[in-house]
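Lecture 7 notes: from sequence to structure.

We start with a single chain of 161 residues. Read the sequence below before looking at the structure.
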Amino acid sequence: MTEPNSQPQTTQDPNAPLVNPQAVYIKDCSFEAPSGPFMSQADGTPTVNLNLATRATALAQDMHEVVLQVNLEAKLGDKVAWLLELQQAGAFMIRNLPANDVANVLSIAAPNYLLSFARSTVAELVTKGGFPPFLLPLVTFEGLHARAAQSQQPNPSPAVN
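Now the structure, written as tokens:
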């Protein structure tokens, strides 16, 4: 005979704010090394160009997909050593937050969360391509969010006397 659970059941407030990752996954990924790791090292250390972008899409009520797009191009002189494109994605449950806070989660907190997964994937792919690992730098998504918000605001009209 089983005994009833004697511990008190805690009920969660259904109106409490909630931000919870539901899944983290690679949405798309591509790695190319045209010459493999056999490029001449005479040109020195490769120059790596990094471009990051984020986008968010509503999947259902309270469920959002955030995608961190990472594009990397490593060159030795004028030759491409390797190219990497990664879409690191996550599904996030977001409930009971004001619209401004939801926007902050989608453009700051969620990309920050996804960055560590993207960093690991990038380092692993570059290493498996025969090159020394590339570590994505730390990114301030707060600054990117502020810049994007500022660029979307209309310019004030000049005052007329």
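The chain has a mean pLDDT of 87. Keep this in mind for problem set 3.
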